Each structure stands twice: as structure tokens, then as C-alpha cells.
User: Which sequence fits this backbone?
């Protein structure tokens, strides 16, 4: 399908404004509270990005995590992950006493999500009690304004969360039928019974978005902007599906008819069966794509640029019957295509998107990306199939692209290289025109190549800057457990790599000032 060319300009500008940044999820930041958060260490991270002439900080989704602690399986696409709320900043604002956070430090090496949950939920509950006891008109007015402004998603999410906690079931589909089907009388009854829990949930969201806004403003003052990540699909066990079943392909019992995934690819020989419900695009269109408009509008309050994960599904998505055992048993079906982006443009103006166009990319996907001038992704680890036409070779990058050494789904560059057999290493050496490439040099060389490329934006995971191996990998696609755990070494601030990053950025001409939007 050929799409009409749209007038939306590239958000990344031209070759004279080439810039760079680092990929690091918030959870991986240092902190004494078991998980990275939105507080002092996040601001210190921004300071170091600024000093190293980096203009972009790319993160993963910050919605409430789902099964396997995945940020791509959230309980709500709108809500924030309250485990990222900073206890230190709650002390600074008087919601907690300093003695409240004088606990034994949790592990620095990995995130122990259960331990973090047990630590932070009581602190958040105490903060809510302080808020209720304070009776401050300033805080009450700010909280009321937040609840009013976000009522479109917050009311459903708060009830959904409170019901989940009370019912203790794995999925909302195991609730009584009247709640699964959102019977109004049952909903009203439970809103009364769970009024305290609902208010506490709203308050936690208030704290999250208040801290997030302050962090974004701090970063902007330092000439650092944030790249957010928008999963294409939502979780089957989410307030999104529960509150808007008419927008998904569900059966009469509200269970998915199809599940999302991808066919066999680079990451998995059986494909990946994600299990997410599939959108009913006819219903979305009839509703004026309002849900998508609000979803994008909400995320743009938090970030300046959005990576559209699984971009190819906007052209066509892999539909796997709900009864299938693997993702092999699916078929491609058309997505919304250009119609959705035209509506988004009309409602929101310029569309600051990066198209995650990795994997099996067909002509219709490229045409959709190019019709709106969305920059695509170029990942150097994918460049070594021995062909001169490989689009991931740096010589083939266009200005309107984002160049990566690797992503959160890849091994670290050093870990990737360590796992290559001798024949593949020879291919790498030949392509890079090196007689030999020691393991200790590959990550730095990859970064230099990305920084020297024509791509308007170059990004590397922090793991590659620090030259870490496979032990620092963030995610293995297709594996449900053991992911999303990695955290920065506690001595990151003393690393000599910051100075080398600054020098590399200056040498590559990527130290241009950020153009504020």
C-alpha cells in the first residue's frame, strides 16, 4: 500500500544538528532503596549527561509493571510506576521523616522487586496519612486539580487497582461477572467500600507525576530531554482493557480472540507469543481514535520524543488465535495505517516519533514510516550478515534515523561479541576493516562508529559506555523471567568513561545545543 506523503517534518532536524544520548531505564539508576527512582540520583544522572554533552536520555516505559516485572506489560498505559517514587524527595517535602528511610540498603547489583515493594508501599502509605493529617489547602488544591485533570484514566485505574488488591486474583477476568462486565450498580457499591484504597491509589499517582514533572523540568534546564517508549499493545490484565472492552477483539466473556506476537525472527525461532489482546481498529476509528489521542497526549506531557515500539503493527500486526500454542500459527492483518497518524497530527500537531522498525519490515511499513518522515532505528549489531546492502551498516544510514549500538532487547555489545564464533568475528573484522578486534575494544569502537555516522541522533546503552559484558544485559526477548534487573555499578560517577564520552561527542560534532520545542 502506498501512503500519501504527509507534511510532518522530522523532529530531529538536519545533519548540522546531530546529537547523542544514552539509554538507561530509571530502575537501573543507583539508589539506597533497591531500585532507581526519580529523586537525587536521577538528577545527578542528568548532570552527568549534561557535562558529557549528551542531549538525550532514553528510558523504557514507566507504567506499573506487570508479569515478570516487565515495563511492556503494564497494569495501565496511563498510570505511573509508583516504585519509582523517591523516598528522599518525600522526606524533603515533609511527607516522611528522615528516620523513616533509615533502613538497611537493598542490593545494588540487581533490582529485587519484591523487596522494593515491601519497602516502598508502607512509605507511600505513611505519606498519604501525612497528607490527610496535614489538611493543607495548597496540597489539597494541587491534589484535587490532578485528580480532575486525569479523571479520564485515573478513576478507572484506581478502582481497578483497589479491586485487584481486594480480590487477590491473577487477572480481573476471575472477578465476579458483574465486575468483569462493569455493571454500574456493582461498580458504585465497590467504589464506596474501597473509597480509602481508591484515594490512596490516586495519591500515589499524584506523587509519581509530581516527581516526574520536577525531574523533566530539571533535565530541560540542563539541556537534556527525555525519549519515552510507547508499547504498541497493552496488557490483557489492565485497566485499559477492563475499562474499554469495546476497543479490543474480545469474545462474549471478555477474553481475547487473538493474541499478539511476532513470527519467527532474529530473536526467536518459534516467534514470540506475547499474549496481548488485539485492537478492534474499526471500533477505534468509529470512536475517532480518541483513546490513542489521549494516550499520546498523556505521554507527551512526560517526554519530548516517543519511540513507537513495534511500529510495524501500525501497518499490519501478527494475529495469533487465542488457542494456539506458539506464535507460528498466526497471520498478518492490516492495522490503522496512515489514518491514525493523520488524526493524531490534527489533534496534537507535530508528531515527535521514532519508528522502531526492526525485525521483519515490509514495503508497506517503510512507506508508512517515510510518509510521515518518522526516523527509523539502525542497530549496529544487526549489520554483519556479510552483504553490502545491509541497512544497518553505518555507511547506509540516512540523516533522518537514530543509530544504536544495541537496544534493551540486545545483549551488551561486549557480551554479543564474546558470544560470536570465529567465523562471525571474521565477518565483523572484515566489515569494520580491522585485522582483529579485542573484546575490550569492541563497544567503544561501535560507539565511535555510531557517533561518526550521518544519523541525526546516536544512542548507546550505558552498559556499552561502561564496556560491560552479558551479565549486564537488560532483557532477553521470549524469556519471561530474569529480566529488567540490571542496575548501574555504584561507582558509576567515578568512571573515566564520562570524559571519553564527552570527547567523542565533541569530535563527532554532536555537541550542538538542544533546540527547545
Assistant:
Amino acid at each position: 500500500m502506498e501512503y500519501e506523503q504527509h507534511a510532518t517534518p522530522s523532529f530531529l532536524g538536519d545533519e548540522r544538528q546531530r546529537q547523542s544520548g544514552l539509554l538507561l531505564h530509571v530502575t537501573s539508576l543507583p539508589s539506597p532503596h533497591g531500585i532507581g527512582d526519580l529523586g537525587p540520583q536521577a538528577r545527578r544522572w542528568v548532570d552527568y549527561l549534561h557535562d558529557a554533552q549528551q542531549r538525550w536520555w532514553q528510558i523504557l516505559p514507566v507504567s506499573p509493571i506487570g508479569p515478570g516485572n516487565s515495563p511492556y506489560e503494564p497494569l495501565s498505559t496511563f498510570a505511573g510506576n509508583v516504585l519509582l517514587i523517591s523516598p528522599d524527595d518525600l522526606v524533603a517535602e515533609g511527607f516522611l521523616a528522615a528516620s523513616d528511610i533509615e533502613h538497611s540498603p537493598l542490593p545494588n547489583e540487581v533490582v529485587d522487586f519484591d523487596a522494593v515493594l515491601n519497602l516502598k508501599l508502607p512509605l507511600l502509605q505513611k505519606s498519604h496519612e501525612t497528607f490527610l493529617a496535614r489538611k493543607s489547602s495548597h496540597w489539597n488544591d494541587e491534589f484535587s486539580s490532578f485528580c480532575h485533570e486525569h479523571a479520564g484514566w485515573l478513576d478507572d485505574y484506581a478502582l481497578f487497582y483497589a479491586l485487584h488488591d481486594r480480590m487477590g486474583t491473577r487477572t480481573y477476568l476471575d472477578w465476579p461477572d458483574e465486575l468483569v462486565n462493569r455493571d454500574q450498580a456493582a461498580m458504585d457499591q465497590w467504589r464506596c467500600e474501597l473509597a480509602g484504597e481508591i484515594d490512596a491509589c490516586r495519591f500515589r499517582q499524584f506523587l509519581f507525576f509530581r516527581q516526574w514533572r520536577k525531574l523533566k523540568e530539571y533535565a530541560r534546564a540542563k539541556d537534556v530531554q527525555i525519549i519515552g517508549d510507547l508499547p504498541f499493545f497493552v496488557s490483557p490484565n489492565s485497566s485499559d482493557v477492563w475499562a474499554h472492552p469495546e476497543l479490543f477483539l474480545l469474545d462474549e466473556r471478555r477474553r481475547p480472540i487473538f493474541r499478539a506476537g511476532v513470527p519467527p525472527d532474529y530473536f526467536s525461532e518459534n516467534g514470540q507469543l506475547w499474549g496481548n489482546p488485539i485492537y478492534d481498529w474499526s471500533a477505534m476509528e468509529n470512536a475517532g481514535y480518541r483513546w490513542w489521542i489521549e494516550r499520546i497526549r498523556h505521554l507527551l506531557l512526560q517526554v519530548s520524543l516517543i519511540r513507537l515500539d513495534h511500529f510495524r503493527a501500525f501497518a499490519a500486526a501478527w494475529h495469533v488465535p487465542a488457542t494456539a500454542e506458539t506464535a507460528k500459527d498466526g497471520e498478518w492483518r492490516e492495522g490503522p495505517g496512515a489514518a491514525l497518524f493523520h488524526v493524531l497530527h490534527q489533534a496534537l500537531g507535530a508528531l515527535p516519533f521514532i519508528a522502531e522498525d526492526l525485525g521483519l519490515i515490509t514495503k508497506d511499513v517503510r512507506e508508512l514510516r517515510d510518509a510521515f518522515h518518522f526516523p527509523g532505528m539502525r542497530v549496529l549489531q544487526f549489520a554483519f550478515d556479510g552483504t553490502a546492502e545491509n541497512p544497518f551498516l553505518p555507511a547506509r544510514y540516512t540523516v533522518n534515523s537514530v543509530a544504536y549500538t544495541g537496544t534493551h532487547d540486545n545483549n551488551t555489545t561486549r557480551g554479543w561479541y564474546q558470544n560470536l564464533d570465529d567465523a562471525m568475528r571474521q565477518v565483523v573484522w572484515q566489515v569494520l576493516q580491522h585485522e582483529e578486534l579485542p573484546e575490550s575494544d569492541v563497544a567503544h569502537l561501535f560507539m565511535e562508529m555510531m557517533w561518526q555516522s550521518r544519523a541525526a541522533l546516536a544512542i548507546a546503552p550505558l552498559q556499552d559506555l561502561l564496556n560491560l559484558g552479558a551479565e549486564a544485559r537488560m532483557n532477553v526477548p521470549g524469556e519471561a523471567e530474569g529480566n529488567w534487573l540490571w542496575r548501574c555499578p555504584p561507582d558509576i560517577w567515578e568512571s573515566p568513561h564520562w570524559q571519553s564520552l564527552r570527547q567523542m561527542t565533541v569530535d563527532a560534532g554532536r555537541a550542538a545545543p538542544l533546540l527547545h520545542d
Summary: The chain has a mean pLDDT of 93. The longest helix spans residues 195-221. The two ends are 33 Å apart (CA to CA). Residues 15-128+205-490 form a domain with the TIM Barrel fold (CATH 3.20.20.80).
